[in-house]
Amino acid sequence: MKNLLAILTATIAVLTLTACEPKRGSDAWCKKMDGIPKGEWSFNDAGDYTKYCVLNQKPEDK
Asked: What are the extents of the domains in the chain?
């Protein structure tokens, strides 16, 4: 029973934390990335920032 409760709590915590993340390429995501130091960006973050925030391409819906 304790294991089930621990798994359920961990699942809820993960879903709650990931639900708050703005969609990559959205205006909210661009603003969030503006607040993060460039040295902390991944290679994908830098590429997507250039693509969506600088060149103003729209993200594809998947």
From this structure: 22-62
